[in-house]
Amino acid sequence: MDLFTPLSWNDTGFILTGVLNTVFISVVAILVGTVLGLAVGFVRAESSKSVNILLGGFLDILRSVPLIIQLILFSTFIGAMGYPLDPFVAGSIILSLYTMAFMGEVFRSGFNSVPMAMRKAARSLGMSYWQTVRYVRVPIGMRAVFPSWLGVALSVIKDSALVSVIGYMELLRTAEQLISRTQQPLMILIGVGLFYFMISYPLSLYGKHVERKMEI
Amino acid sequence: MDNYEFHWNVVFDAFPQLLGGAFTTIHVSVLSMLLGIVIAVLLALGKMSTSKVFYHIANVWIEIARNTPALFLIYMAYFGLGAYGIHLSPYFAVFSALVFINGGYLAETFRGGFQSIPKTQYSAAKSLGMNKFKVYRYVILPQMFRRIYHPMTNQFVWSILMSSLGILVGMNELSGETQRLQSTSFRTLEFFIVAAVMYFVITKLVLLAASLISKKVFKGEIS
User: Fold this and answer.
1) CA distance B69 to chain A (A)
2) What is the Cα gyration radius of chain B?
3) Using one digit for the tens of pLDDT, what is the confidence trace for A94-115?
4) What are phi and psi of A60, to 5 degrees?
5) Which pLDDT score is estimated for A201?
6) Which of A120, B3, B74, B92 has a CB 3.0–4.6 Å from the CB of B88, allowing a cystine?
7) Residue A175 CA: distances (Å) to CA of A13, A116, A141, B67, B88
8) CA distance B209 to chain A (A)
9) Who among A70, A76, A190 is closest to B189 (CB)?
10) Residue A162 and residue A20: Cα distance in Å, rounded?
11) All domains in chain A, ordered by first residue
12) Continuous H helices in chain A
């Protein structure tokens, strides 16, 4: 009797689920993280030192504790408190917060990159404070930090692989399960690596291209 | 909400083991960083060399390191090489994946730092009568080091944080040790809270040391 069944075309659906789940959780984390990061970045660029120290301390924790520990800690915590969440929900909450912590810094420097003279010029043209934010600082500042934003987004796609520890069936976890059934680790892993590479490489090239264009 | 009782005693009893784990974490990150730097220098030279072969080897290495998840590379070292009959220990699998990634990322940092120094400085130093060694020793490298110091610190912190993936291959660094200890005591929450605090402290200490060193070495020229 054969103990292991080799990889076959029947596994396509299973792998595809993993691919879609990886894409899904990455997109959710990047979207939520960007929105939250924009808010955090704005608050950090505008507020006083004391608020900044508090907020900065919180973001610091998110950035100085390994993501994998955060995921385990959060899912254990909500379980112990009696509100177990779906791995996808728990994973996207933590991944989004993690993304927010990095995006916040990116956007903060984006808001600060618009020179004071330009903001004052906008105000003296009769724009209200929020109008200068909406029509001057967001469009100009955010364009300046686009390459960094893309860098963070790419690292989120790669870090989404860690959500597998709390039981979310993303690509790397499906691969792991296929490996334990088929015992063909090399082929499966190379396929997985190629998938990540094919998403990440073109985007990183694009980021470099934009960065080069901005320098000139 | 209120019926979870924290039991910290188990964690305090196991504290020496956690410290041992933390030591392994620092150990693997320092070593992977040092070897990573050596490889990064070679890769950066390869990427700037005129030889097509070296250029392509360096390029492929750098792009794979930068565009695939760290966890994938650790699995590759641990399970993937196993298919060739090369069975690495968990420590060595994590170590080699970190070296691979550090090399790739730092190579780009080094290349960027090197290229940010205008070529005219080289000619100017030459015209002052310095030989090639002196130009690099006194003009190019000190400036370059200043520019790559910060990214290098970040990469080191990243290595510390990413060595936590050792938990998934059964390595006995801080998170792996935590996992092992919580599985025998079932105080998962307490153990992981302590581990998180320890990671935070390690990271902060490294950053503090880095900023003190930079103040000493660069005399406050960079923050």
Assistant:
1) 5
2) 21
3) 999 999 999 999 999 999 998 8
4) -60, -40
5) 93
6) B92
7) 12, 51, 41, 18, 20
8) 15
9) A76
10) 15
11) 10-215 (1.10.3720.10)
12) 12-46, 49-64, 67-80, 87-113, 116-124, 129-132, 138-144, 146-159, 171-182, 185-215
The confidence band for A85, taking pLDDT boundaries of 50, 70 and 90, is confident
The CATH architecture of the domain made up of B9-218 is Orthogonal Bundle (1.10)
The confidence band for B1, taking pLDDT boundaries of 50, 70 and 90, is low
Q: What is the 3-state secondary structure (H, E, C) of chain B?
A: CCCCCCCCHHHHHCHHHHHHHHHHHHHHHHHHHHHHHHHHHHHHHHHHCCCHHHHHHHHHHHHHHHHCCHHHHHHHHHHHHHHHCCCCCHHHHHHHHHHHHHHHHHHHHHHHHHHCCCHHHHHHHHHCCCCHHHHHHHHHHHHHHHHHHHHHHHHHHHHHHHHHHHHHCCCCCHHHHHHHHHHHHCCHHHHHHHHHHHHHHHHHHHHHHHHHHHHHHHCCCCC
**B108 or A1: which carries more pLDDT confidence?**
B108
Which residues of B lie closer than 8 Å to A, measured between beta carbons? 1, 3-4, 63-64, 66-72, 75-76, 79-80, 82-84, 157, 161-162, 164-165, 167-168, 175, 188-189, 192-193, 195-196, 199-200, 203-204
Buried-state track B149-166, b at ≥16 Cβ within 10 A, e below 16: bebbbebbbbbbbbbbbb
Alpha-carbon distances of A125 from A111, A119, A142, B199, rounded to whole Å: 20, 10, 22, 50
pTM for this model (two decimals) = 0.89
Residue B222, pLDDT > 70, answer no
Domain boundaries, chain B: 9-218
Tell me the CB-side half-sphere exposure of residue B88, using CA atoms within 13 A. Answer: 22
